[in-house]
Amino acid sequence: MTQRNVKIESKVGLHARPAAMFVQTAARAAGDVTVAKRGGGDPVNAKSILSVLGLDARHGEEIVISADGDGADALLDELEALLSKPEPEQA
């Protein structure tokens, strides 16, 4: 499983729109994708909006995203790019 530490830049953290965009992106992956707060806590399914919201990951905190399967590195690049934006783009 490939993993990446990512700092959350969104002012609302991994909540509401950023969380929805994160989950939608993770759900496109064929393999397992998990996310956890860095330094503690069990990883949760990154394809589940309730699990991701339940992390209560806030602005400035670091999370660990893990993915397996084909395209795991590209998926992590995409998820990191989403979380590195101060504000999510409007659809």
From TrEMBL:
Main location: cytoplasm
Localization of this protein: Cytoplasm
Matches recorded under PANTHER family: PHOSPHOCARRIER PROTEIN HPR (PTHR33705), PHOSPHOCARRIER PROTEIN NPR (PTHR33705:SF2)
NCBIfam families named among the record's database cross-references: PTS_HPr_family
Species annotation: Actinomadura rudentiformis
Domain of life where this protein originates: Bacteria
Annotated keywords: Cytoplasm, Phosphotransferase system
UniProt entry tagged with the keyword Cytoplasm: yes
InterPro entries: HPr, HPr-like, HPr-like_sf, PTS_HPr_His_P_site
Biological processes, Gene Ontology terms: phosphoenolpyruvate-dependent sugar phosphotransferase system
Pfam families: PTS-HPr (PF00381)
Residue ranges of every copy of the HPr domain listed in the record: 1-90
Identification of the protein by name: Phosphocarrier protein HPr
Annotated function: General (non sugar-specific) component of the phosphoenolpyruvate-dependent sugar phosphotransferase system (sugar PTS). This major carbohydrate active-transport system catalyzes the phosphorylation of incoming sugar substrates concomitantly with their translocation across the cell membrane. The phosphoryl group from phosphoenolpyruvate (PEP) is transferred to the phosphoryl carrier protein HPr by enzyme I. Phospho-HPr then transfers it to the PTS EIIA domain.
One cellular-component annotation, GO: cytoplasm
